[in-house]
From TrEMBL, chains A, B:
This is NAD(P)/FAD-dependent oxidoreductase. GO terms for molecular function: NAD(P)H dehydrogenase (quinone) activity. The keyword 4Fe-4S does not apply. Gene3D superfamilies: 3.50.50.100. Belongs to the NADH dehydrogenase family. InterPro entries: FAD/NAD-bd_sf, FAD/NAD-binding_dom, NADH-Q_oxidoreductase. The lineage of its organism: Bacteria, Bacillati, Bacillota, Bacilli, Bacillales. Pfam families: Pyr_redox_2. Signal peptide: none annotated. Residues 10-325 form the FAD/NAD(P)-binding domain.
Amino acid sequence: MEVILLKKPNIVILGAGYGGMITATRLTKQIGHDANITLVNKHDYHYQTTWLHEPAAGTLSPERTRMPINSVLDLNKIKFVKDEVQEIKREEKKVVLSNGELEYDYLVVGLGSEAETFGVPGVHEHAFSKWTVNGAREVKEHIEYMFAKYNNSPEKKDELLTVIVAGAGFTGIEFIGELSERVPELCAHYDIPREKVKLYVIEAAPTALPGFDPELVEYAMNLLESRGVEFKINCPIKEVTETGVSLANGDEIKASTIVWATGVRGSSIIEKSGFEAMRGRVKVEPDLRAPGHEDIFIIGDCALLINEEINRPYPPTAQIAMQMAEVCASNIKSLMTGGSLKTFTPDIKGTVASLGGKEAIGVVGSRKLFGTSANFMKKMIDNRYLFLLGGPGLVLKRGKNPM
Amino acid sequence: MEVILLKKPNIVILGAGYGGMITATRLTKQIGHDANITLVNKHDYHYQTTWLHEPAAGTLSPERTRMPINSVLDLNKIKFVKDEVQEIKREEKKVVLSNGELEYDYLVVGLGSEAETFGVPGVHEHAFSKWTVNGAREVKEHIEYMFAKYNNSPEKKDELLTVIVAGAGFTGIEFIGELSERVPELCAHYDIPREKVKLYVIEAAPTALPGFDPELVEYAMNLLESRGVEFKINCPIKEVTETGVSLANGDEIKASTIVWATGVRGSSIIEKSGFEAMRGRVKVEPDLRAPGHEDIFIIGDCALLINEEINRPYPPTAQIAMQMAEVCASNIKSLMTGGSLKTFTPDIKGTVASLGGKEAIGVVGSRKLFGTSANFMKKMIDNRYLFLLGGPGLVLKRGKNPM
């Protein structure tokens, strides 16, 4: 009798964001016990980055934006390691963590993004730039502390009530939308006259929400201005200081709260591990593998993908990360079983930006959406993600009521 | 026909605290339109100082501790002036406000108290010492901001999670009671291990809750220690610094939140106006008038009253302020109508200190109360005040359910 010992391959997934979580659910279903699957994440929870403007502004509990990883994944089929990735040792096929190492046969890198500062001094020291559960909570508590401080200090410094959002992209607009909607409530709670609160959105580019239809951009700006938001477009920030921002035009704006939202770059682990990358993003092969690596898939915000139609990279979105995850899981299965690998093509179903309250703007197919219909679509998108991740049960448990 | 022009006397009440509000309600009822009654207060709301440990710890909305003055007083019978008192010009019989002056025939001074620092340096700069609605809100928001900051900073500084309460008197104990009860909830919300949170109560005197029965003090300390509170008794604070406190014994404790609750002194307006006073408190005549002044009554925390039995001043409490207000209103009426003036004698009905959750300790008559029965009594006392102020309607609207 001949015994063939088959060593099961080790599949390691780094990061429990949109890409990592969808990859994990698909692999546990499609491969199950034919491989040792391990998910590594810094926290024992997954969170929905695209919802974080709400807890940051204080309009949603941060608990609503996260879920324990063990509540979504079947830990009989996948091992979860709560640890922080330090480096990927590509030659040795292993991952160095803060408290150990993991060997892999197949690696999925879904390490997400970091704030892009564009070299502006003072961002890390004086601005809030981490768009995470921890980061969002700190922004919320900081703003409330500043409002509480105002009336309790004899000087009543106006800058305590000034919030600057650097960047009029998706994140900046969605955040100021929530915050501007909440300001009247904050003013009532802390006995502050509404006119004392100043909200600025400062953008270096010549338009807010670049890439969006101009009619939608105008709708959004008009709406936000009607709630007291002041836009400074085409207005680069030179420096962030302890007391506010210095603009390239020489002006200074005093503010106690500065939220940095000028866009993201890929995880710095990418460069630290020696991958060739642009701002932390690796230009992946059509099958989502890193160039020159048969065994490493890179998905989500660390993957750079060119939109051939306009010869510019696709923006790093949750939608694309999730679609990449589906292809990545399928390709790993093919590598294990000998099938052919799929080519990734994004299928942009639509984009909706919420503006706080019942307001939003968006594009679905070629259709422009405004106000409540866009808001409805936004909630549908949020719920659809929960459906993709955990089926109808998760939508019922954690979804947003679109009524 | 002979016409006699009678000039109505001007009665001016300074401060809408316990003393001022009860005086105002009694005078409007007993004197009504026979005098021009004016109430001056910094805010357009009255608040219950003795409830403030709850919003400061975040266990009750600050809204529950205050009420608009016009919701309690009948503004057809009393004029309300929202302004800040600067000085009492006794010779000219007028009061200087930030935005004007008021002449009086009878003056009631109920300006309340300020924190007593005992000359310890750094209190005003680095500790929270204002026990007001604004002050309580700032303490709450500061603690939450520090908790939120902890996980979002790479260093995870332990002192962010340390709260020092200076003073183990009534206010300090009630505050740490609420806070210690809330800590598990804060830890869950901000993902903080409970053992990282340090709560200190530091007291210079040889006992916590001086004047309370030793058995009750022991009950309170044991209970609070079981919730993780560390007491340092007989341990004077030498200085409050930007990073914590320096103790007289040479130790230092790092802490981001320092709450100063070592007791109060009377309003500094008292000394500024030339009254002879000890720590802002005027030793009043038995009829509650300031010595040498026929027309000035001083009540509440600005009045000093000796308890002859133990030859020490009565503590400045809401209970005594309210009892003073009744006598003060009656004596003003007598001055106007020619009756004889009453002598004030405090009638201490009992004292209860809440310890957070369903816990409290107290003395009612000669009976000691612990736990839920003391807690029940505390809520009854809070409700009884509302009854005295605004009748059963106010209890129903704003009271605490003692179940």
